[in-house]
Each structure stands twice: as C-alpha cells, then as structure tokens.
Design brief:
heterodimer; A: about 280 residues; mainly alpha; MetI-like fold; B: about 325 residues; 2 domains; 14 helices
C-alpha cells in the first residue's frame, strides 16, 4: 500500500472518481428493480410479448393500470382497504401510545416500574409467533375476514412506540409542567397542551414508522382475510401474481401501485425517515 | 429495542423523583386513577393481544388440534414430533444457511458503502437515501418484482444474459438467489448505521492515526472497525433477528421451494422457519405443531435479544482505552 498522495494531485481526483463510480453502480442496482417495475407497468402486453423484458414503453399505456382497477381485480378496493387500515392504525397507535407514555413518563403511581418492565419485555416477542393465536382469537370473536379483524390486535399502541415516546417525554423540563400544574392545569391539559406539542419530532417519526409498517404489512392480512372483500394491496398483489403467472405487465402494475406511494412519501420525508431509522432502529 | 436507549436517552441527567411522602394523599390517589385511565387502552391491548396469545401458543403446543375437531391433550407429543421432524429440522438448517450467507455479505457491502459515504464527498446524502429505499418498501411487492427479474423464460435477467437460468427453481441456485434479494433489501439499512457509527468516531483519533502514518486501509482495519464494535454488534443482532423472521420475500419468490422428495418427507430448499410455521398452521392445519415451532422460535429470539441486552449493559459507549 502506497502512502496517501499529496492533496490536490490527479491521483486524489482519480480516487474520488473511482469512489463515485462504485457509489453510482450501487445506486443503479438499487433503483433498477423500481424503475423496471414502473416501466413494465406502462408497457402494453403486446409490446411486452413482442420485445420481451426491458423494453421501453412505446407508447406509454395505461392499459395495465386500467385493467387492474376496472378489470374485475378490485384493486381500487384493495387500495381503499389499505389506506383505511393504515389511517385507523396510525390514529389508534399514536393516541393510545401517547396516553400510556405520558403516564409512564410524568405520573407517579404504584405498579409503574413493573408495568414498564413488562412492556419492555414485550419488545422481544417476534410478530410471527403471535400470528396463529391471534388468528384463532379472531375466529372465536367472529372477526375473521372483517376490517376489525385486520386492525384490532394492533390498534391499542405498541410497546415500542410507548418506549420511544416515554424517553422523549422525560426530556421535557419539569419546570414547564410544574408551572402549568400551579396554574391549575390537570394531566390531560398538560399532556395535550404542553407535552404533545413539544414532542412533535418524535411523534412525526413514529407516525412515519407506523405508516411504512402498516402499508407494507403482509402476513397478518394474508392470514386473517380471504378473498377480495378485505384484501389489502400486498395480499392482492400476491394473489394476482399466482393467478396470472406470466402476465408480467399486469403484475408489475400491481407492484408499482404497492411501491410508488410509499416511495413518494419516503422522498418527501427522506431526511426525517433516515434520521428516525438511526435513532430508533426502526420497529 | 436495546441499544436504542443509548441514543434516545436525554443528555440531561435524570430529574429528581417526586418523593411520594411530599405528595398529599388525595392527589396521589387521583394521580393513580389518572395514570391507569391513560394506560387502560394500551394495557388492554398488551394483555389481550400480546400476553394472552403467548399463553395460547404454549397451550396449543401441548394439544392435538386440526381446527375442526375438539382439541385433545397431547402432553409433550408435539415437541417430540417437531424435534424429530425432518421438515422442521430442514427449516432450521435453511434459516441458518440464510444467516450465514446474508449477514457477512450485507455487512461487508454496508461497511464499504459507509466508508465511501463518510469521506465528505458531495452528494453522499443522496446516495444514502437511495440505498435505503428498498428497505422501507413492501418486501412482498419487491419480492414479486424480483420474481419477474429472475423468471426463467421472460424474466429480465435471463433476457439480458441471453440464457435460460432457473434462478428460483433449481435446487442449487434458489437459496443463493433469495439470499441475494434479501441482501439487496437490507444493505441500505445496515449502511445507515455504519455511517452513523463512523461519523461518531472522534476526528482527533483519526487525525492522530494519520499523523502516525496510517494509510486508509490501516485506518479502516485498525481504527474505524474496532471503534465500530458497538454499532457492529447492534447491526449483527438485529439482522440475525430479522433473518430468523424472514417470510414475505420467501412467500413472494419461492414459497419455500423448490422441493425435494426424500425418505423422510418433502423438504424445501428455501423453507425457512417462519414459512414452516405458516405451512404447518394454515396449509396442513396442524396447529399443535405450529405452536411448538412458535414456542421454539420465541425462545431462540428471546435468547439472542437477552445476549444483546447483557452486552449493551456492559458496553454502552465507544471503548477508547
């Protein structure tokens, strides 16, 4: 290994170019599956059959997307169910987690540490383990293949969200809260008027994590729903693929619809999401 | 998630606790009521959809049940069956092979990417964002995109190389192909942590090493890598845990196949533990066996997490001595 060259030499510039080449190849490999999903979705089935994979759509056609939404594949419904599920879980998880985290962070009460310890242990339980018993419970409650069956088990907040929020709530200066208490504010006023507004960064982070997780969720919806009535977009995409095994333009239209909305959200909030992944470890 | 506490914990030291004796009794009672009112929904969710299901799983593992007839007590029968079941042992082995293939490769790629992204070159942030895109996208949908890319007849890859290769259906290639897709998905996530870890290394240490004549390679192996140990450990443990739960990509790409018929039954070349659990519960309706698999999986992952907890309790900061 030669010692590093003096600054400003062509060698150094060459090195930077080499680094960029590697980074660009990496970026291309990362993006190409997304790009090909989109271009194939806008290629007509006839052109795809004639020219094979990797053809540039000419002309750009909405035939596949149209087929997906109007051709009896009920993708409009799947999209609606996914949005509804994501919104309901977002609101439920945020509200209930904030309430619980406030109690843990700001109120002294008997049983606090043991309960918090129990919640922390809950973090160790992998979701796959719970799928079978949760399914049996939903069957027993008559909620299999209903919207409530889809959302109920995850509606009441997650130990993980509660843990993150509590850590953040504890950083809010005690003086602010005490001042409000002296002015006669109760816990509810303090929570909604002081703690929540001051915790916006962590709440936005959690909101983004929840949206990403729920939009992408597959195993639980696969298990608890059957058929098209309550099928979410991932499940609909999987069943479309197994039905139309080589109709790739149609299947890529489905994956595009599953991927692109979230990719757009990601690009809009990229700074926030990148930071929150490193802060939270995500999930 | 352990390790998280180290990053999230406020810089301000712990505030003095309110001493219970100073709080008037009536207010304390009111506080308790308020606290439990606020906690009620999440306590209900915790008890009903986390604790209770775990009890159910344990209960199931001791019963014979096909979801139709009445469950009957099985004692340890299911445990015996599962531990002697070639399909289950195969799924453990397949999962272990996935761990051994995916973890080293994605760690190596992540380290290289991170060391390139921390040189202060323009546009580093843009690359970081691009690399992490697969990780936040639906694994199922990406799995299906890759199923097309790797399809034998009109797939993208075979079209480009002009040859018919059975990426996902030949016994030799199926597992490596799926592992490659998993690596592709995870690299950006791993990179993010290594970037954060490398940026956390104090500049004066790097400067000192440079003055002592360390070149970039020595700098990486002798300085950066040892100082990255906590990050490395965190990334390795979370990656192992996530590979143990691999399901969506497997479902999209191979559904556990291709299969080989052997004397001890049909075995899948990519049949990971989570896939086995799913098949046992929802295809063969052998709920008792599925319960045993879930209990074993839970035990394994709890052990891994506890090992990580212990490690982090001992070592929370960079070891600069």
């Amino acid at each position: 290994m030669l010692p590093a060259a003096a600054p400003g030499t062509p060698r150094r510039a060459l090195k930077a170019v080499a680094v960029y080449v590697v980074l660009l190849v990496g970026a291309a490999l990362t993006l190409l599956p997304f790009v090909f999903s989109v271009t194939t979705a806008f290629t007509s089935p006839t052109q795809f059959a004639r020219e094979g994979a990797a053809s540039v759509p000419n002309p750009v056609t909405l035939v596949n997307i149209g087929e997906l939404f109007a051709g009896g594949h009920s993708f409009g419904r799947a999209l609606g169910v996914t949005v509804a599920m994501t919104v309901v879980l977002l609101v439920g998880q945020l509200c209930f987690s904030i309430m619980a985290a406030y109690a843990f962070a700001r109120i002294e009460f008997p049983g606090r540490s043991i309960l918090f310890w129990a919640y922390l242990s809950g973090l160790m339980v992998p979701p796959v383990v719970l799928v079978v018993p949760l399914y049996l419970m939903m069957v027993e409650l008559g909620l299999r293949n209903t919207f409530w069956g889809l959302v109920l088990p995850f509606l009441f907040g997650s130990p993980y969200a509660i843990f993150l929020l509590r850590e953040y709530f504890r950083t809010i200066p005690r003086d602010l809260v005490d001042a409000a208490r002296i002015d006669g504010a109760g816990h509810f006023r303090i929570m909604t008027g002081i703690v929540v507004p001051l915790s916006r960064p962590i709440i936005v982070t959690l909101a983004l994590i929840t949206v990403v997780t729920q939009w992408n969720s597959f195993l639980w919806p696969l298990v608890v729903t059957t058929g098209e009535t309550w099928g979410v977009i991932t499940v609909a995409t999987a069943s479309l693929q197994s039905q139309y095994t080589s109709n790739w333009t149609l299947v890529m239209a489905a994956t595009t619809i599953a991927l692109v909305p979230l990719a757009v959200v990601f690009l809009i909030f990229q700074k926030h999401i990148v930071r929150s992944i490193t802060i939270t470890g995500f999930k | 998630m352990p390790g998280v506490s180290d990053t999230v914990k406020p810089a301000v030291s712990r505030q003095p606790r309110m001493r219970p004796s100073r709080v008037p009794g009536r207010r304390r009672r009111r506080d308790t009521t308020t606290a439990y009112t606020l906690l009620a929904p999440s306590l209900f969710g915790f008890a009903a959809f986390l604790l209770f299901p775990i009890l159910v799983v344990v209960w199931l593992s001791f019963h014979h049940w096909d979801l139709l007839s009445t469950p009957t007590w099985a004692g340890a029968d299911n445990y015996g069956t599962v531990l002697g079941d070639a399909a289950f042992l195969n799924s453990l082995a397949v999962t272990a092979v996935f761990v051994c293939l995916v973890i080293p490769v994605q760690t190596a790629f992540g380290l290289v990417a991170a060391s390139f992204l921390t040189r202060g070159l323009p546009c580093s942030a843009v690359f970081r964002v691009i690399y992490v895109l697969p990780w936040i996208s639906a694994p199922l949908a990406l799995g299906i995109v890759w199923k097309w890319i790797l399809a034998p007849t009109n797939g993208l890859l075979n079209t480009l190389i002009g040859e018919r290769v059975e990426w996902l259906t030949s016994p030799a290639l199926a597992l490596p192909s799926v592992a490659a897709v998993v690596v592709w998905t995870n690299v950006g996530y791993v990179t993010l942590f290594f970037v954060a870890g490398m940026l956390g290394i104090p500049q004066h240490i790097i400067d000192a090493a440079r003055i002592d004549g360390a070149g970039p390679i020595a700098l990486f192996w002798r300085i950066k890598l040892p100082l990255l140990r906590p990050t490395m450990f965190f990334v390795l443990v979370t990656s192992v845990i996530s590979v143990f739960q691999l399901f969506d990509q497997i479902y999209a790409l191979t559904k556990g196949g291709p299969h080989a018929v052997t004397d001890s039954g049909t075995l899948g070349y990519t049949d990971v533990v989570a896939m086995r659990l799913y098949t046992e519960a929802f295809s063969t309706f052998n709920v008792g066996k599925a319960g045993v698999i879930a209990v074993i999986l839970l035990g394994l992952l709890v052990l891994i997490t506890l090992a990580q907890q212990l490690y982090f309790r001992k070592r929370t900061t960079y070891d600069l001595s």
